[in-house]
Amino acid sequence: MPSPFLSSEEYDERAHQLYNEGNYDDALATLREGLGLYPNATELHVGVGYARVARDEFAWARRSFEEALVLDPDHEDALAGLGETLLKFGQTSGALKSFHRILELGYQDDIELMLQVGRALFRDGLMEEAKEYFDTAVQQVPDNAEAVAMVGYTEHRLGRDDPAIATLRRALQLDPEYVEARIYLGNVLYDRGEYEAALYHLDRTTPDDHWDELGIWRLIELKKSTYRLADDDPALRPWDERLNELAGEPDTIDEMLGEIEQAVNGDAEQEAKGQLELFGALLADLSEQKQTEASHQVIGRDGRSYDGTWDEIIAQMRDASAQPAKSVQDFMQSEARRGLSLTGILISTADAESFVRGSADAGLLRILN
Questions:
Q1: Is the pLDDT at 351 greater than 90, yes or no?
Q2: pLDDT at residue 248, as a whole number
Q3: Which of 209, 230, 255, 283 is 20 to 30 Å from 348 at the Cα level?
Q4: For residue 142, what are the contacts with CB-CB under 8 A and spacing of at least 6?
């Protein structure tokens, strides 16, 4: 039952604590209880919006943010939340307008808010716009390593590698323990062929710092070639163990990708077959089309060229990867997971063409024809 002795601020504080603990269901229940007593409490409507976002209930979240803005049209957190939900629905112009209003109201000195807006734009692939908010944060707090690193990430995504490298190095000067920036920098340097510099940074991380297989594979490769280590060298064992952990039970991203594929490709019977059998069935259904499919050419970020049908290109990419024994479907899911962690863009694995085109949109390869 509602507790009439609690103020709206106390309900908000309780919900914040639950939210920070990751207990979104109880946070939402607390906020809704509070709104039953204080229907005009703007902060409670805003809290409901963010709890809904955490539960991926974006339509309901949008409604809560709009209700908050009816009560207070200039509420900065509601404007930021509304902008995030509008991006989810592809309403970019409305989102940018909502975000810009925050700047008009003079909240440039709210660093967390600037980073929140910048990250939302970054996830949506709006790099120039994201950089504006990250730059604003850096102007306010030049020694904030996270803000500086975010500028570096956007510079890299915009194809400005030299400034990106300089910016990421500056972030590490501000905070040498900022492993996310160090791993990102190591991968950028590796992609440029600056292997000694890449090893310098990747070798200053621990296995538990990595949540993606790419940096670990590259570090193992660099260690083996530089220090002439055998495959079973004890120095590599912790990294191999971490790889096994990451390749083990599917994480939430893997599960999300699987759910998307099931929604697009399968009815209940197909779903029961499992992802690998479903993919094989789809290829069998398309076998006749595949024989007449046009040939394409793709250039990977490592400079390698792949030619053939979309399916043949994926198979070639898999064979050239560090894990050629994987099935094609597992390879696409692994690469989509890596792409999401690097770029914030979800790459479809519904079929080979969607995967290649999605990877190109994420800047991970180029399609020549």
A1: no
A2: 65
A3: 209
A4: 148
Distance of CA 216 to the CA centre of its chain: 18
* Three-state secondary structure string covering the chain: CCCCCCCHHHHHHHHHHHHHCCCHHHHHHHHHHHHHHCCCCHHHHHHHHHHHHHCCCHHHHHHHHHHHHHHCCCCHHHHHHHHHHHHHCCCHHHHHHHHHHHHHCCHHHCHHHHHHHHHHHHHCCCHHHHHHHHHHHHHHCCCCHHHHHHHHHHHHHCCCHHHHHHHHHHHHHHCCCCHHHHHHHHHHHHHCCCHHHHHHHHCCCCHHHCCCHHHHHHHHHHHHHHHCCCCCCHHHHHHHHHHHHHCCCCCHHHHHHHHHHHHHHCCHHHHHHCHHHHHHHHHHHCHHHHHCCCCEEEEECCCCEEEECHHHHHHHHHHHCCCCCCCHHHHHHHHHHHHHHHHCCCCCCCCHHHHHHHHHHCCCEEECC
- Residue 154 in this model has a pLDDT that exceeds 80: yes
Domain with CATH 1.25.40.10 in the chain: 1-105
Over residues 43-50, mean pLDDT: 93
Query: Tokens 């060298």 label which residue?
Result: 233
CATH number for region 1-105? 1.25.40.10
pLDDT digits (tens, 9 = 90+) for 293-322: 568 888 887 678 888 899 889 888 888 877
Please tell me the pTM assigned to this model: 0.66
Span 238-255, average pLDDT: 73
Tell me the pLDDT tens digit for each residue of 19-28.
Answer: 888 888 898 9
Provide the pLDDT confidence category of residue 287 given band limits of 50, 70 and 90. very low
Identify any residues that bridge with 306 across adjacent strands, giving them in sequence order. 298
